[in-house]
Amino acid sequence: xxRNSVSETVVRILADGGTFPDIQQLVSGARGRxxxxxxxxxxxxxxxxxxxxxVRDIAPAGDLVERIVNEAYxxxxxxxxLFADSTRV
Length: 89
Hints:
Elements: H1 5-15, H2 20-23, H3 29-38, H4 61-84
């Protein structure tokens, strides 16, 4: 689940001994649907992929593209260097 005020409230209620009826309204599908329909990330609980845990920064799109291009160039340079050192048969 994505971390937002609603998910943090759910965790707090459960940690304090709450049960499903205590959080049912917070985790209802209707609230989660509003996240996707209205774009309000605080409207409810919404799921995300495991890759969310891998996010270390949120870079501007231009910086991200530049980073990807530079990393690709480094990989291509390394790989072509491996073949340049080998002898052809």
